C-alpha cells in the first residue's frame, strides 16, 4: 500500500476536523462546542486543529461554505433547466421545501449569526459568502422575470426566498409550507397577472 503524501494526510485531517466540528456543533451548539472537543472527537490534538483553523468561527465558515458550494450549483442547474417561469418557480419552491427540512443546520446558523451580531464579529467573510451565492442564484432567475426586470437586486430576491425557506422552521409559524410561501411570492413577482 502506497504511503500518503503530506498534502493527502493534511487534507484527510482537515476533512475529519470539519466533520467533527459539524457533528459537535449540531450536538451541543456553537457556544458550548470547544476546540478541544472538536479535535478529540476527530482523533486529533488541539495543535492539529490550529494547524488548519484559527478559530471555531473559521471552521464554521468552512462548513457553511462547503454547504453553499454543494447546494448553490445544483439549484442554479435546476433553474437554468426550467423552460418557463412556472418551472423555475417550481424548482425554487422544491428547493425551499427541502431546505426547511434541515432544521438542525438552520438553528446552528441562527445561533452563530446572533452571537456574531452581539459580539460584533460578523465579518465580511460571512457577508461575501452569502451575497456571492445569492447573486448567482438571483441571476439564474432573472430571465424568468417579465422583461428580465427584477423588483430588487438578485441578492434581495434570494434573501426573501431564504427568509421564507428558513423562517417557518425557526419560528414554528403556523404550519405554513416553506415551498408554498416561496411559490406565492415568486408567482406574484414573476408571472404577469391576468384579470
UniProtKB/TrEMBL annotation:
Alphabetical list of PROSITE patterns matching this protein: HTH_TETR_2
Stored SUPFAM superfamilies: Homeodomain-like
Keywords linked to the UniProt accession: DNA-binding, Transcription, Transcription regulation
Residue ranges annotated for the HTH tetR-type domain, each copy included: 11-71
Entries under InterPro entries matching the protein: Homeodomain-like_sf, HTH_TetR
Pfam families: TetR_N
DNA-binding region: 34-53
UniProt GO molecular function: DNA binding
Name of the protein in question: TetR family transcriptional regulator
Originating organism: Ciceribacter naphthalenivorans
